[in-house]
Each structure stands twice: as C-alpha cells, then as structure tokens.
From TrEMBL:
Record keywords, A-Z: Coiled coil, Membrane, Transmembrane, Transmembrane helix
Protein name: AsmA family protein
InterPro entries: AsmA (IPR007844), AsmA-related (IPR052894)
Domain AsmA: 1-289, 319-509
C-alpha cells in the first residue's frame, strides 16, 4: 500500500514537472500575432465572416491557463450584405485549470465578458444573418469525415466533467433590425452572474437589464435556480421569477413565475413552462408546451378566476379627449406568428371589460399566419348568453378585429351602459352582428366599425324621451323644454337591420310598436361625432289618436312626422303637427291663390278697357 502511494505520488510529481516545462516553453515561444492570424483564417474558412482582434492576446499557463484580449469584431457572413457588424466584444477573459485536463475534466475558473453587442438582421427573403452564418459553415467542404466522426464518438465516450467557478456578463446588448435595417428593438443586459456551476446540480442565477422598442424603454429582471444536464441538452429553471416593467401606458407590468424546461435535440427544441403570468398584477395560470424547428408549434392553456381588461385597453368612447398614448408595438408578435402553429384554450370565470362582466368565459385559440382566432368565444353576459367567432390581425396598424357575435336574450341597455355609459335604451332581445373593425379601444373600434347585423328587442323603453308628451305639447302649441325629455317611451317590440361603414351606423328599416303608437322610419348614429339622426312616421293609437283627431279632424288616418336629432348624451325629438297641416292644405291654398289671381287679372283688364274707351 505504501509502495502504491509512492508510485502515485511519483507520477503526479512527474506530471507537475512536465506541466511547468510546457508552460515555460509556451511562454517563451508564444506568438500573439501568429495565433490571431490562425484564428482569423479559421473563422473565415468556417463562416465566411471577417474576424478582427485589435488587442494583443495575453496568455499565462500556471496554475491556470488564462487568456485575455479585447477589441473583437465579427463582420456579417459574405452572402449577407450589410455594413453593420454581426458581433463585437470590448473585453474577454477566461481561465482553465490545467491539472484536471489530463483526466478529461474541465474546470473553468472565472469567465468575464464585457461590452458585447450582437446585431440580428434579416434580408428581403426573411433569412437572418445567423442562418447565413450557420449555412456558410455547413456548406464548407469537410475532409476526413469518417475520421471526424470517429473522433467525435471517441470524445463523447471519454467525456469528462465540466465545472465553472464564475461567469460574469456585463453590458451585453442584443439588437434586432427590420428588413430596412431600422432598429426595431434592443435587449440590454446590465449584468448576469453565475457562481459554482456544474452540470447535474442547481445554481442560483440573477440578471437585470432594459428593453427598448418603438421609442419606449422598459426595465426587466429575472432570478431562479439553473440546472443543466451532463450532455448540455437539457436545461431547467425552477422557481423562476421574471418581470418586465413599463412596457406601455396600458400594460405597465408583465411578470412570469414557475418552472421552465428546455430540451434540445438535433432538429428540434422542446420548451415547457408551468406557472403564472401576471398582467398588471393580475394572475393567469399558464401551461405551455412548444416545439421549435422549421415551424413553432405552440400548445397553451390559460385560466384565471378574474381578469379585468379595462386597464389594458385604450380610452373608451365616453372620454371626450382621451389621453394620447403611444400604441404598443406588436410587430414581434406578428413576426412570431408568421412561422407558428398555435392551438390552445382560454378559461376565465369572470372577465371584466369596463362595466361589463362576462361569466364562464371559454375560447379555443388558433392562428393562421399573423391572425389569431378565438373560435368560438362563449360567455354569459348582460343577463343572457353570447357566442362569437373573433379574430385579431396583429400585422394591421391599428389592430384589425373581426367579430360575428350572436347575443341571445340579453338586456341591450346593460350592453350600452357597460360600453358607452348610455342609459337611453333598454330591452330584452337578440343582437346578431358580422362586423370588422380596427383599434385598441372601444371608441377607436366604433369609429372603424363596418359590417351588417340585426336587432330584435321586446319590452323595452327609450329613456329621456317621452313621445306622448311631445305630441301633447304639439297639440297645445307649448314650447318644448327639458321636461319633455325627462320621461321615457315604453315599447313592446323594436326591430331593424344594421349597416355600418367606418363608424356610420344605420338602421334603415327601423320599426317600433308601443301601446299608444307605431313608429317606422330610418335612423343613424355617427360614432366619430357621437351624434344621432332619424326621420320617422308616427301612427297613433287609442286615446292619443282621439285627442289629435278631435283638434285636427283632417289628420284622421294620417301619419305624423317625427324627427330625432342631437348627441348620444342629449338626444332631441320633435313633432311638427302644424307643418303637417300646412302640407295637407297646401294644394287647396295654391288653387285658391290661382283663382284669386285669375279674377284679379280679369278685373284689371276690364278696368283698363273702360279707361281706354273713355279716352277714345
């Protein structure tokens, strides 16, 4: 045993002496320029990109193999035309223990990288510069393929362990440009630090930075426990906490927590996340499974007990002068959906939009290109039920929304009060729409609304307009005042088709039946100006009809003209009975005038004849 120990000690001593000798020889014969030239040639051969190393390579060998340099830039691959460099690094330093290398283990000391910048671009065909770099490497002729394969298999069979004492990334920037090389977003890492890393064990990580997109700058941060498999193909982050603040005026905070797993294979990468995403502090449970290859296959399930959307949307129609906010840049979502296949489910117990509450919300999610579909979207709302097929096109500016809602047995007054803060109409019935619109807020959506629909209501009322009072005022020729509009007009049935074109909403065949009159005509509202207009014919019934016909017998069986004008907040109606009477007798008046004129002419001729005869 003692002899064995001496033998091992002798071998170790011999190795130390050899390492010292190699270190001395390397230091003496080390040529920085030659090594840089070899690196430049190797990179050019492998990637077709130009590597430039401005600073000298600083190299030391014992007790660590330590290298340090800076001023590194890498150009775009030769097939990718752009003046912007692909990557630059201000300073890099790394060290590796020499002794463990003889046993096949790699023990890395400190790795520090600062002032790095990576620029991602796409050409007109949609190909990225990273893809061009990889393709250039894959197309490079390779010799001794069998030898390389055997060497790879041999190295895999004898692969040792890897450990890392510390990794520090400082001032790292990732820039993404659009097709015209305009900066679309910039991801900046202030500092990332990892200590005591080894495959197969968990290591705490933390990082902070900023994200700049469309002129808006936001802050982000993350923390968690990182686990990496021995083959470096599986990654897990447990107890993940990530947060993004100040994304827009509406979306002030996005936070993500839970457990994340990443598994890489030769042609695909699998990602899964189970946890919670918070939008402005509101929790939504998320189960995500995704596969990334030539296409991104996304399977997601979202669920929440309560979700309020008002704070996430733009100003509503009731605001006269909404605060001007810069719209959220959704082009990254559109770019993602172009090469994605999405499917999923959404379930929310209680969804609140302004003053409207939707219960038992469910929707199936899918996409077709940059358009995301909710097909179907179901919910209980406004004391009834609604079901719709809805779609959102993220490439349109502003967002393009298409809806085909079917409302059954809803209180229309609840709907109007919830979205427009109007309490002018109530009634139970059905509303079917096939509409398209654009915008992030209710007001903008109304102003861009186009399509068709149908409205059917029963047992309702117009609040603020008492048509019976208006008729009585007309009978007594009273001047109209606010009291005429303080009551309400009840009806048994109301129906009309609906036509909308860029915010102008028309009801071309409006019909209303009440206990005292029937109303038929055309009505319209302009969402851009929030105004009302309508021209109708009134057919009176019962006692009201008797009153009118007693005062104006000639109006028996006639329809009264009824006009509606004003704004959403203050609608005004009028009935001009005197005008109707004048129209009724206008023909008789005109005939009487002609008769009188003819008689006057005849008398004038006779008088002129008499005068002429006398002079003669």
């Amino acid at each position: 045993m003692k002899r064995l120990f001496k033998w091992i000690l002798g071998i170790v001593s011999t190795l130390i002496v050899l390492i010292l000798a190699l270190g001395i020889v390397a230091v003496i014969f080390f040529n920085s320029d030659e090594l840089k030239n070899q690196l430049v040639k190797k990179v050019k051969t492998e990637t077709s990109a130009d590597l430039v190393i401005e600073q000298e390579l600083s190299l030391s060998f014992f007790p660590w193999l330590h290298i340090e340099t800076g001023g590194i830039t890498l150009s775009q691959p030769q097939s990718f035309k752009s003046d912007k460099h692909l990557m630059k690094v201000d300073q890099v330093a790394a060290s590796i223990k020499l002794m463990p290398l003889f046993s096949g283990d790699i023990e890395v000391g400190a790795v520090e990288l600062s002032g790095a910048e990576l620029n991602l671009l796409r050409d007109n065909q949609g190909r990225s510069n990273i893809e061009a770099l990889v393709n250039a490497k894959e197309s490079t002729p390779s010799t001794k393929t069998s030898d390389t394969k055997e060497a790879s298999e041999s190295s895999n069979s004898k692969q040792g362990s890897l450990s890392l004492e510390s990794l520090v990334l400082t001032d790292f920037t990732l820039n993404q440009y659009d097709y015209s090389e305009k900066l679309s977003q910039s991801f900046h890492l202030n500092k990332l630090e990892v200590n005591d890393f080894a495959p197969g064990s968990s290591t705490p990580i933390s990082a902070t930075g900023t994200l700049q997109a469309d002129g808006a700058k936001t802050e982000w941060g993350l923390s968690g426990d990182l686990w990496v498999g021995a083959d470096f193909k599986k990654f897990k982050v447990s107890q993940l906490e990530a947060e993004l603040e100040g994304l827009s005026e509406q979306l002030k905070e996005i936070a993500l927590s839970g457990d994340l797993e990443l598994s890489m294979a030769e042609k695909t990468t699998q990602l899964s996340h189970h946890g919670v995403v918070r939008l402005n502090g509101q929790p939504i449970n998320i189960q995500l499974n995704a596969g990334f290859s030539s296409f991104k296959d996304i399977d997601v399930k979202l669920s929440a007990k309560r979700l309020e959307l008002e704070g996430l949307m733009a100003a509503t129609a009731s605001e006269e002068k909404p605060k001007q906010t810069k719209p959220l840049d959704l082009s990254p979502i559109a770019d993602f959906l172009k090469r994605a296949r999405v499917k999923g489910q959404l379930e929310v117990d209680e969804l609140v939009l302004k003053n409207a509450t939707f219960n038992k919300v469910s929707a199936n999610l899918r996409n077709k290109g940059t358009t995301l579909f909710l097909d179907p979207f179901k919910a209980d709302a406004f004391q009834g039920h609604m079901e719709t097929i809805a779609s959102i096109n993220f490439v349109a500016k502003p967002l393009a929304l298409s809806i085909q809602p079917d409302f059954n047995n809803i209180q229309i007054g609840d709907l109007l009060a919830a979205f427009f803060e109007l309490d002018k109409l109530s009634g139970l019935g059905e509303l079917d729409l096939n509409m398209k619109t654009k915008g992030a807020g209710v007001k903008e959506m109304l102003q861009n609304l186009s399509g068709t629909g149908n409205l059917q209501l029963t047992d309702g009322a117009f609040n603020g307009i008492d048509i019976e009072k208006l008729i009585q005022s007309g009978l007594s020729l009273e001047s109209l005042n606010k009291q005429n509009y303080s009551g309400k007009t009840s009806f048994a049935n109301l129906s009309s088709n609906i036509k909308a074109n860029k915010g102008l909403i028309e009801l071309p065949d409006f019909k209303l039946n009440s206990p005292v009159f029937d109303l038929v005509g055309k009505a319209s509202t302009n969402a851009n100006q929030e105004t009302l207009a309508g021209n109708f014919q009134l057919s009176l019934k019962g006692k009201l009809k008797e009153l009118v016909e007693q005062k104006y017998p000639k109006l028996q069986g006639k329809k009264l003209p009824f006009e509606l004008r004003g704004t959403w907040a203050e609608p005004k109606a009028s009935i001009d009975i005197e005008a109707l009477l004048k129209a009724e007798y206008q023909d008789k008046i005109d005939k009487k005038k002609e008769e009188l004129e003819d008689k006057a002419k005849d008398k004038l001729k006779d008088k002129l004849g008499d005068i002429f005869n006398r002079k003669k």
